[in-house]
Amino acid sequence: MRFLLRISGLIDAVNDGIGKLVYWLVLAAVVVSSVNAVVRYSINYSSNAWLELQWYLFAAIFLLCSGYTFLRNEHIRIDIILGRFSKRVQAAVDIFGILVFLFPMAILIMWLSWPMFRDSFVTNEMSSDAGGLIRWPAKLLVPVGFFLLTAQGLSELIKRIAFLAGVIDQPGEKMHSH
């Protein structure tokens, strides 16, 4: 179990680091959106590339931070109901949700999105809009984002099982010594 908890800690560290790096993409999205709006309304000039860049940045923020959000326990939950139960019942429900809902959905999306990325990369797909950007970087975000979410799901699964086994005191912590 200690080996699995170390793997969990590594996954947590990766998603935490990516989440903190992606904070900067929020600033970039705000700057790009602001500059684009000012230029569009002040000199009546716009570019599809700038609009698509905004879309790419939003997609990167949303997809790359899905694992980080799960790590921070800030995803959508049913806490209003689940919060009335013991930590053990909450951990068991989390395990069920990870195994039955998260893993099948995330793995399926990752699996189905990879060929779309690959085809886009191989053909160097471009936006159909004049002056638009290449598409493969945005399409790569989908399998990468769902991989990070799946990995964080594995980390959370390990922590919940360790909690139920009495190896750690709280489902969200790393481990303590017995």
TrEMBL record:
<comment type="subunit">
    <text>The complex comprises the extracytoplasmic solute receptor protein and the two transmembrane proteins.</text>
</comment>
<keyword id="KW-1133">Transmembrane helix</keyword>
<comment type="similarity">
    <text>Belongs to the TRAP transporter small permease family.</text>
</comment>
<keyword id="KW-0472">Membrane</keyword>
<feature type="transmembrane region" description="Helical">
    <location>
        <begin position="53"/>
        <end position="71"/>
    </location>
</feature>
<protein>
    <recommendedName>
        <fullName>TRAP transporter small permease protein</fullName>
    </recommendedName>
</protein>
<feature type="domain" description="Tripartite ATP-independent periplasmic transporters DctQ component">
    <location>
        <begin position="30"/>
        <end position="161"/>
    </location>
</feature>
<keyword id="KW-0997">Cell inner membrane</keyword>
<feature type="transmembrane region" description="Helical">
    <location>
        <begin position="92"/>
        <end position="114"/>
    </location>
</feature>
<feature type="transmembrane region" description="Helical">
    <location>
        <begin position="134"/>
        <end position="151"/>
    </location>
</feature>
<keyword id="KW-0812">Transmembrane</keyword>
<feature type="transmembrane region" description="Helical">
    <location>
        <begin position="21"/>
        <end position="41"/>
    </location>
</feature>
<keyword id="KW-1003">Cell membrane</keyword>
<dbReference type="InterPro" id="IPR007387">
    <property type="entry name" value="TRAP_DctQ"/>
</dbReference>
<dbReference type="InterPro" id="IPR055348">
    <property type="entry name" value="DctQ"/>
</dbReference>
<keyword id="KW-0813">Transport</keyword>
<comment type="function">
    <text>Part of the tripartite ATP-independent periplasmic (TRAP) transport system.</text>
</comment>
<dbReference type="Pfam" id="PF04290">
    <property type="entry name" value="DctQ"/>
</dbReference>
